[in-house]
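Is this the right way to post structure tokens for a design question? Let me know if I should format differently. Anyway, here goes:
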């Protein structure tokens, strides 16, 4: 069977590729891929955005895309970013990264896929083991043994919050841009509006980085913490610069997309053909000049002013 090759994307407009999944429960996953535009006001195609971690980079599974074969990773058989962006086309990749915030912002819903395998991850809803667990819990609750149930709930939430997904840099932009979202684990889902409250209900203390991600999710905490804080590029780099990324330059490009001072067109435009050292020079220059202009009374009129400001 022929191998799927990406068609050229319209880089003159905010174009994206969308995936339509064909119905079916068994056999090879089959999809249709097509081009859509984010600026089609009133005529845009409703879509949902899916987020996950890459997992192993090995292409171990095949899906059918427009009738042709496409190898994908095993972590998420339907891995939308890897399918809908031609990773080998650096110009297209930069074009898509530049509008990543709009892609997630304009999605009807954003889905986070939790890929960690647990003992019950593969149980079907009708599996008798679910009934056995409930009978066990029901008996303990009736006898007043709430502590064991609460312990299991806390351990489950700790496991979920400890997943690698929370450490990835692109997740920050995806979470911050979405207007509605659900966290998915196997066949179970929960709205982020409730997911963000679980930590307080179960007295779980996640890492500061993980808590920041939860605070960005659509819900009550977003308005109270994320949007109320400083979001300039310098602050974001100090707070999230240690996030994980397969491509080191993504640390900059992802944070620029959610910053208040570097997200505009032409500021630090994503360019994967640019060497890392050149990007570092541009970022340093940008941060230095921003620091000069944002501090009251810091207008530079001579070399002495510059020297004093550096001190």
């Amino acid at each position: 069977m022929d191998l799927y090759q990406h068609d050229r994307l319209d880089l003159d407009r905010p174009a994206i590729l969308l995936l339509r999944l064909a119905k079916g429960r068994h056999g090879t996953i089959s999809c249709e891929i097509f081009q859509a535009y984010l600026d089609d006001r009133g005529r845009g195609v409703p879509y949902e955005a899916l987020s996950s971690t890459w997992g192993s980079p090995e292409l171990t599974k095949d899906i059918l895309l427009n009738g042709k074969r496409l190898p994908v990773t095993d972590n998420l058989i339907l891995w939308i970013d890897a399918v809908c962006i031609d990773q080998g086309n650096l110009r297209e990749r930069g074009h898509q990264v530049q509008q990543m915030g709009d892609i997630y912002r304009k999605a009807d819903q954003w889905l986070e896929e939790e890929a960690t395998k647990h003992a019950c991850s593969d149980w079907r809803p009708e599996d008798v083991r679910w009934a056995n667990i409930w009978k066990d819990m029901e008996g303990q609750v009736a006898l007043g043994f709430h502590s064991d149930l609460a312990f299991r709930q806390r351990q489950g939430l700790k496991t979920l919050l400890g997943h690698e997904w929370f450490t990835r840099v692109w997740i920050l932009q995806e979470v911050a841009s979405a207007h509605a979202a659900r966290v998915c684990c196997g066949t179970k889902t929960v709205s982020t509006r409730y997911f963000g409250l679980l930590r307080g209900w179960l007295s779980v203390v996640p890492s500061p980085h993980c808590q920041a991600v939860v605070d960005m999710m659509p819900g009550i905490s977003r308005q109270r913490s994320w949007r109320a804080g400083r979001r300039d590029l310098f602050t974001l780099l100090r707070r999230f610069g240690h996030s994980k990324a397969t491509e080191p330059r993504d640390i900059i490009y992802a944070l620029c997309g959610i910053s208040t001072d570097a997200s505009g067109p032409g500021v630090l435009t994503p360019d994967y053909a640019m060497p890392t050292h050149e990007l570092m020079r541009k970022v340093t220059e940008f941060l230095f000049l921003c620091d000069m202009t944002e501090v009251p009374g810091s207008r530079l009129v001579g070399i002495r002013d510059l020297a004093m400001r550096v001190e």
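Format looks fine. Someone answered above. Worth noting: Residues 182 and 258 are 20 Å apart (CA to CA). Residues 75-79, 113-117 have pLDDT under 50 and may be disordered.
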